Amino acid sequence: MKEIIIALVSSSITIVITSFFNYHFQLMKEIRNESVKYKTEILKKVYTPVLKVLVASVVPGVGYDGITKETLFEIEGIMKKNYELVDPDLDSIIWALRKEIRWEHYEESSKLFDKEKRLLSHVEHNFNFYRKQLGLPFSKAKIKRSLAEHYR
């Protein structure tokens, strides 16, 4: 009789422990999957389109001198469509550029803004950071360079 009770208690304890660990690992897997989904969405809907717009403003042979107000408005359009995915640093950079446009040269369409490359380095860093997080090819040099520029 004692052997049966011991067997029932030990199997019950084993079942409870197994269920606990199974639940814990399933929960962690679900959180990880949601995180990957969210990072993929940020990369696809924010940083890839913004980087494409910025790369289009690069002059071959000269490089990146800045962006025009039309380019900034195009980037703002991307951000407005996906505002819940935009990080606060990118938002503050865009607001600073808008303020600069408003105060300095709203009428001039050929004036270039972001000459210190804050927007470009932020977008390149986050584009490569999210690619790294997702296990996609990324540029280590761009991540290191943008971090060095950030802490100057």
Short descriptors:
152 residues; mainly alpha; 5 helices
Write up what this structure looks like:
The mean pLDDT is 84. This protein has 5 helices and no strands. 16% of the residues are buried. The chain has helices spanning 2-56, 69-81, 88-103, 118-133, 140-150. Helix 1 (2-56) packs antiparallel against helix 4 and helix 2 packs antiparallel against helix 3. It has one domain (32-150). The protein has 152 residues and is mainly alpha-helical.
List the helices and strands and how they pair.
Elements: H1 2-56, H2 69-81, H3 88-103, H4 118-133, H5 140-150
Helix pairs in contact: 1-2, 1-4, 2-3, 3-4, 4-5
Give a brief outline of the structure:
This protein is mainly α. It has helices at residues 2-56, 69-81, 88-103, 118-133, 140-150. Keywords: Membrane, Transmembrane, Transmembrane helix.
Residue share in helix: over 70%
Number of strands: 0
Distance from first to last alpha carbon: 75 Å
In percent terms, what proportion of residues is strand? under 5%
Low-confidence parts: none
Could you give a short account of the major beta sheet? none
* Class per helix and strand makeup: mainly alpha
What is the count of structural domains? 1
Mean pLDDT, rounded to whole units?
84
Query: DSSP helix count?
Result: 5
SSE sequence, one letter per element: HHHHH
The general outline is: elongated
| Spatial extent as radius of gyration | 25 Å
Keywords: Membrane, Transmembrane, Transmembrane helix
Transmembrane segments: 6-25
